[in-house]
Amino acid sequence: MEAGPVQWENLDVSDVSTAATDVP
């Protein structure tokens, strides 16, 4: 899911892997 900004408030375990990839 990369259709919008990541919501750290409602971050899911699956999103963590995706978010980590977006972080430099």
TrEMBL record:
Q: Which domain of life is it from?
A: Eukaryota
Q: Where is the composition biased (Polar residues)?
A: 15-24
Region annotation Disordered: residue ranges? 1-24
* Name under which the protein is recorded: Uncharacterized protein
